[in-house]
Write a sequence for this structure.
């Protein structure tokens, strides 16, 4: 029995196909569901074990990246999502998915009426940029998606990926991934930290480790020949991002 | 009415504002120290403060932004203090801003139903000493484009109300018009004299006057943009008469080659080739030149939006999987004082076009994989914006569908507004200084999310076989889409059933509107309910607007009143064939007579830093080239992912190792000498790129895109004929058929009685199928000690070269192509890469061996030595600088490991090739002259810096 995985689609979602492919390669049984189907009650989040919000420009990223889908999820599916987390489900937000989860107050979770403490905003460079970045994983993180991962090389492609938070709450964000240079130096600066994120944070999770979001795209590096330098360095069978999907499926299998 | 202002908290840096400061500095105004951008939202509503607070919290990010609101319709007065200047910019009435729709949706999601409308504006706060003139310059050159925007002064803000439309049928009196009257009608609708004759004859026979809608329909259908009358016309060149240039050159090559893998050529919205027996690739490149000249952002965005709908409207609908973009601009350092009146500065056009293409393409989730940017002063008033899209479609759905009488006409996607009215006739006409003032209705802002939603739902409808035929609504709007679709059947359309953005459009405006993001479907009545339900489930609008008939007539109605009734045969075949004169005389330029420099490092640095050669990383990085997960070889390659790759490779079917290679060739400078060899060179360049990355000529299809000056001038038409003839000769010789193409003629500009015509510009795009992508090769040097080969002979071909350009010379010895020899060496090289003998490969193009070697070296972070005496020459060359910078076609630099030397040489035997140097573990590129002595001895850092500096914006 394959792990039932829901990939959310909304107007402007555009990484759902390759994200589904990555999860299927990792052994998941994937269904791609339009947000309207969830809202109309034709599909239920509770029937799935993994819930993925993939990359894209939902609702054009008008107002701010991910804001309008965040608003919709919070207001129309907030209770279902809270229950899904309580029941032990896994949530993964990639790029726009991260922006949505953060702005919906799902990651970090915010009770109603509590003002958010972090957001994702315009890159310091002032532009959308597509480039490859080195990442180091926080070995103390409870994140179930990054178990066994120390370093990764993944592409980013975003214009609003800068983590901004009150410096006081920065340590409470449960950073999972940091931008580094090729030697692992976290303080290497732009373009290694491609957006100017505070604390060089590229991804965060919740206290359970089961809700995880990141700006880089693991689904774009699941085979070795997606690596930008494979023609010179040789192609490994799997790309660095694949382990994230395998970890998710392995964990969810045990549920 | 409410006004909400959202701004960044004051302690945070404003990236948008800092970008503006930089742009202001680029204008030569250095007194601005800071700028901040405030987003303004006007709500047409009367909300209690608790609801208004909710809306504010939606619009402002609580962590980074703050807001303030007021319930007044007055614009906040500009706080012009000594050092603080305010400019507030809003969209003109009738311009559809996609943000407004999204904000409405989000407000409704919050359960607030009583907001009637939303408008957005932007307030710029500029700090620093600025005179009134300087502020005006900043606002005109950077902040406002009068085509779509205006500066709000202290007037009251009002939500524009659209006038209501009440039906009145308009006839155009041609039966009683005299010659002057007829001429005026011809001018109004853009008919030539012959065309007008044909129209008048048709209606005289009918014994009635035409309606305005009928004349509009004929004008659109017969426009150059839609019917390509020059290419299909009669051309007299010397003693020969060419009847239909397209059929006698480009299409003829395809017919003669008769490749079984060509599935659909020149008949649908894109050309289609077989990919792997199960899937097919369709490819189309379009131009969107004139709209981009007057509103670069919107023009380019709708350019990419439009070409994406071509594969989507091919066969029964292909999924768009890759975009390509090629731009031609005047140099970014073009002096402001030399700008013709009414023309935007090339830097602004460049930035706007780039942003438009990126914003639209990125939002659609289509990787932008390939492109080129050319600079020439003659593009100052007519920039060229080529946008291309590759699609993937199941083979069994790759043929154009066919409706049956009784099938319903469905328009789906965006609503119809006054956008782009007369865009097609605009595209086919000459631009003038007044164009920017008069052509505002021809330009619009695209809405990529509407198009994305449409793509998502159409592909589901396709897989459920819910429609019988599909086409895109592009130039000419419904008039062209429905008119062409119904040619073999007939159709009746109720124009009042077309969903509108706003009231006030006349029947004829609805019919010719070029609003974006629309597709037209033919749907069997059995499927209509399911189709409409599917579209509604994802909030995509679709409406039945009529039905296909069997009377071969185009019948239009508005509120039941007939407004158009045309015979399909006349509509599609009544246009008289044009008959034009062409001449060709070879121009003569001064030959270079300067002494060869002793240090060729200097000119090498200069060429690397030339606008046409320098790194385009600034542009490429702002396109998403990884989305869809198919990437194999990226546009930027090498040790630090910033070298200039030759072509890109993707795996369109994620679980297959088979690949698609996308490449292009373009060089307008050669056309100044000889358009025949320019076209041949462009084809050779595109094919070189395919071979350089590890592909082969086995399955390569080409697209042609001609952008030309005014072809009613015989010498310009003569150049077109020569270029088309080269397309035929080369396609046949290389075995690479054309599958689709497009032309944009009349790219000339008149200012102060002076005509600026663009250089003859032919873009050749290539799509190739690669059996095994694990054989891909990148262009960066990989290993010190490896041998560097040159494949292909070098001739003294400096005509139109970048080297001569550094001396402001053109020359006459344009690079030629010997396709027989070239094909043999390309085939050899393909076999070598198949066997894994090639470690790196780069084609020689602008800047010749010198630039290719430098690029391979700094991309790989490895040095190289090159011996010019080893370079095989096709004929005598007196000067070393000519060998180093010759731009002879069909040449490659190839890196081969010493243990593969024998095998490589064995395979290449019989072609012109030689080992000319070695990859070194140094940080230097050294070129040794034929008499010994280092002609180039430069560090990689210096070379790379020269190449990266110009466009590091």
């Amino acid at each position: 029995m394959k792990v039932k995985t829901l990939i959310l689609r909304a107007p402007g979602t555009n990484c759902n196909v390759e994200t589904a492919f990555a999860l299927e390669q990792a052994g998941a049984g994937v269904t791609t569901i339009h947000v309207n189907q969830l809202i109309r009650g034709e599909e239920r989040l509770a029937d799935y074990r993994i819930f993925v919000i993939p990359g894209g420009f939902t609702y054009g990223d008008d107002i701010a990246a991910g804001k309008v889908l965040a608003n919709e999820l919070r207001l129309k599916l907030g209770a279902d999502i809270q229950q899904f987390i309580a029941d032990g489900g896994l949530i993964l937000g990639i790029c726009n998915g991260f922006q949505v989860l953060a702005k919906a107050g799902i990651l970090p979770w915010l009770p109603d009426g509590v003002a958010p403490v972090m957001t994702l905003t315009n890159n310091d460079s002032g532009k959308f940029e597509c480039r490859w970045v080195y990442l180091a994983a926080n070995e103390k993180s409870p994140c179930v998606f990054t178990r066994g991962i120390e370093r990764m090389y993944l592409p980013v492609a975003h214009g609003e990926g800068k983590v901004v938070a009150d410096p006081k709450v920065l340590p409470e964000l449960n950073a999972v991934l940091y931008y580094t240079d090729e030697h692992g130096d976290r303080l290497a600066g732009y373009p290694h930290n491609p957006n100017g994120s505070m604390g060089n944070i590229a991804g965060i999770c919740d206290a359970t480790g089961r809700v995880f979001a990141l700006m880089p795209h693991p689904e774009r590096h699941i085979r070795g020949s997606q690596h930008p330098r494979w023609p010179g360095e040789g192609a490994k069978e799997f790309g660095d991002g694949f382990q994230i999907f395998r970890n998710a499926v392995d964990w969810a299998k045990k549920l | 009415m409410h006004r909400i202002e959202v701004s960044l908290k004051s302690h945070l840096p404003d990236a948008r504002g800092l970008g503006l400061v930089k742009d202001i500095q680029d204008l030569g105004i250095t007194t601005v120290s800071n700028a901040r951008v405030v987003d303004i939202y006007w709500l047409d509503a009367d909300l209690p403060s608790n609801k208004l607070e909710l809306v504010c919290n939606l619009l402002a990010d609580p962590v980074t932004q703050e807001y303030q609101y007021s319930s007044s319709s007055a614009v906040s007065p500009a706080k012009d203090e000594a050092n603080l200047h305010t400019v507030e910019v809003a969209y003109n009435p009738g311009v559809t801003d996609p943000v407004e729709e999204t904000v409405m949706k989000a407000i409704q999601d919050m359960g607030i139903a009583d907001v009637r409308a939303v408008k957005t504006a932007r307030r710029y706060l500029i700090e620093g000493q600025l005179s009134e003139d300087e502020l005006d310059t900043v606002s005109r050159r950077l902040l406002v484009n009068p085509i779509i925007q205006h500066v709000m002064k202290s007037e009251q803000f009002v939500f524009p109300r659209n006038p209501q439309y009440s039906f009145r049928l308009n006839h155009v009196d041609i039966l009683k018009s005299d010659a002057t009257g007829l001429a005026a009608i011809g001018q109004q609708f853009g008919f030539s004299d012959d065309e007008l004759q044909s129209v008048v004859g048709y209606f005289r026979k009918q014994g009635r006057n035409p309606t305005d809608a009928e004349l509009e329909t004929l004008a659109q259908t017969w426009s150059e943009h839609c019917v390509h009358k020059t290419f299909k016309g009669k051309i007299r060149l010397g003693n020969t008469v060419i009847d239909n240039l397209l059929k006698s050159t480009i299409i003829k090559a395809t017919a003669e080659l008769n490749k079984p893998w060509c599935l659909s050529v020149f008949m649908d919205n894109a050309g289609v080739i077989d990919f792997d027996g199960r899937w097919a690739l369709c490819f189309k490149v379009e131009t969107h030149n004139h709209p981009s000249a007057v509103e670069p952002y919107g023009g380019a965005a709708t350019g990419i939006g439009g070409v994406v709908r071509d594969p989507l409207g091919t066969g029964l609908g292909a999924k768009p999987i890759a975009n390509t973009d090629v731009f031609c601009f005047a140099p970014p350092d073009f002096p402001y004082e030399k700008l013709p009146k009414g023309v935007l500065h090339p830097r602004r056009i460049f930035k706007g076009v780039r942003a438009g293409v990126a914003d639209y393409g990125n939002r659609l989730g289509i990787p932008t994989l390939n492109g080129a940017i050319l600079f020439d002063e003659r593009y100052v008033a007519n920039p060229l914006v080529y946008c291309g899209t590759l699609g993937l479609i199941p083979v069994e759905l790759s043929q154009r569908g066919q409706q049956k009488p009784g099938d319903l006409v469905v328009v789906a996607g965006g609503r119809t507004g006054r956008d782009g009215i007369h865009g097609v006739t605009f595209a086919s006409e000459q631009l003038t200084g007044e164009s920017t003032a008069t052509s505002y209705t021809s330009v619009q802002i695209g809405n990529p999310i509407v198009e994305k939603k449409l793509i998502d739902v159409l592909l589901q409808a396709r897989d459920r076989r819910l429609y019988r035929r599909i086409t895109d609504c592009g130039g000419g709007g419904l008039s062209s889409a429905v008119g062409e679709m119904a040619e073999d059947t007939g159709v009746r359309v109720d124009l009042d059933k077309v969903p509108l953005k706003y009231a006030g459009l006349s029947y004829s405006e609805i019919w010719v509107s070029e609003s974006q993001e629309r597709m037209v479907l033919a749907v069997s009545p059995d499927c209509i309910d399911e189709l409409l339900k599917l579209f509604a489930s994802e909030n995509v609008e679709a409406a039945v607007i009529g039905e296909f008939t069997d009377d071969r007539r185009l019948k239009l109605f508005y509120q039941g009143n007939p407004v158009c009734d045309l015979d399909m045969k006349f509509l599609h075949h009544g246009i008289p064939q044009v008959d034009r004169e062409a001449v060709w005389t070879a121009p003569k330029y001064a030959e270079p007579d300067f002494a060869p420099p002793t240090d060729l490092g200097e000119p090498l640095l200069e060429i690397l830093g030339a606008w046409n050669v320098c790194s385009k990383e600034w542009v490429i990085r702002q396109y998403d080239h990884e989305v869809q997960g198919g990437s194999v070889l990226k546009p930027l390659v090498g040790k630090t992912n910033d070298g200039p790759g030759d072509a890109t490779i993707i795996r369109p079917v994620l679980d297959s190792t088979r690949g698609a290679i996308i490449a292009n060739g373009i060089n307008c400078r050669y056309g100044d000498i000889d358009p025949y060899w320019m076209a041949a060179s462009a084809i050779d360049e595109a094919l070189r790129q395919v071979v350089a990355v590890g592909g082969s000529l086995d399955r390569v299809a080409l697209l042609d895109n001609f952008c030309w000056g005014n072809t009613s001038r015989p010498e310009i038409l003569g150049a077109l004929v020569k270029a088309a003839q080269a397309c035929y000769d080369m396609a046949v010789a290389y075995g690479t058929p054309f599958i689709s193409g497009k032309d944009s003629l009349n790219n000339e500009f008149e200012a102060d009685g002076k005509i600026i015509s663009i250089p003859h510009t032919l873009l050749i795009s290539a799509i190739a199928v690669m059996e095994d992508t694990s054989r891909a090769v990148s262009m960066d040097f990989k290993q010190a000690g490896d041998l560097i080969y040159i494949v292909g002979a070098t001739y003294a071909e400096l005509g139109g070269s970048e080297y001569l350009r550094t001396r402001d010379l053109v020359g006459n010895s344009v690079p030629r192509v010997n396709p027989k020899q070239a094909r043999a060496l390309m085939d050899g090289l393909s076999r070598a890469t198949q066997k894994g003998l090639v470690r790196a490969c780069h084609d020689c193009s602008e800047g010749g061996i010198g630039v290719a070697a430098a690029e391979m070296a700094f991309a790989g972070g490895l040095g190289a030595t090159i011996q010019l005496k080893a370079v095989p020459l096709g004929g005598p060359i007196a000067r070393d600088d000519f060998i180093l910078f010759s731009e002879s076609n069909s040449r490659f630099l190839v890196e081969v490991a010493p243990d593969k030397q024998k095998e490589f040489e064995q395979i290449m035997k019989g072609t012109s090739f030689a080992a000319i140097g070695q990859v070194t573990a140094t940080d230097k590129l050294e070129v040794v002259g034929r008499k010994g002595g280092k002609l180039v001895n430069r560090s990689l850092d210096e070379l790379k810096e020269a190449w990266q500096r110009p466009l590091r914006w």
